[in-house]
Amino acid sequence: MERPSLEFNLPDTHEEGKLYVVDSLNNLNKLNVCPAESQHSPDEEENTGGTGGSMAGSNTRNQCLFFITFILTLIITLALVSFVIFLIFQTRNEVDQISSRLLSEKKNIEELKKLNNIILKHLNQSRIKE
């Protein structure tokens, strides 16, 4: 692709063409001189009145959305943490109940062993007597 030449023959153009060429050169100069961040289109300046009101409203709205999102995230996190703590306590209660049942069953088994030993001794003594 060929790059267009920036040389213009101003005397050869008509009056309207001269205005267009000068305007184009001014726009080109603005592009080269102004940094990209500070360029605003004329439409934006007309809409905001040059005061940046649109930016302030947008910034406030973004802060509000961020704040609402942050609060919702905190509430959801608090609910999840509360649920996890509830589950931990429920599990602890269940484990305590199972442990107490196991201890009582262990005592019952030991009593049954003692009774079994007593019965065996009694049977052995009764056989000996016979």
Per-chain topology:
Elements: H1 15-33, H2 42-48, H3 53-129
Question: If you had to describe this structure to a student in words, what would you say it looks like?
Answer:
The chain contains three helices and no strands. It is mainly α. The termini are far apart. Residues 34-56 are annotated as: Disordered.
Short structural description:
With 130 residues, this protein is mostly helical. 79% of the residues lie in helices and 0% in strands.
Looking at this protein, list some descriptive labels.
rod-shaped, single chain, 3 helices, mainly alpha, 130 residues
How much strand? under 5%
Low-confidence stretches: none
Give the overall average pLDDT: 78
Q: Which sheet architecture does the biggest sheet show? A: none
Number of helices: 3
Rg result? 46 Å
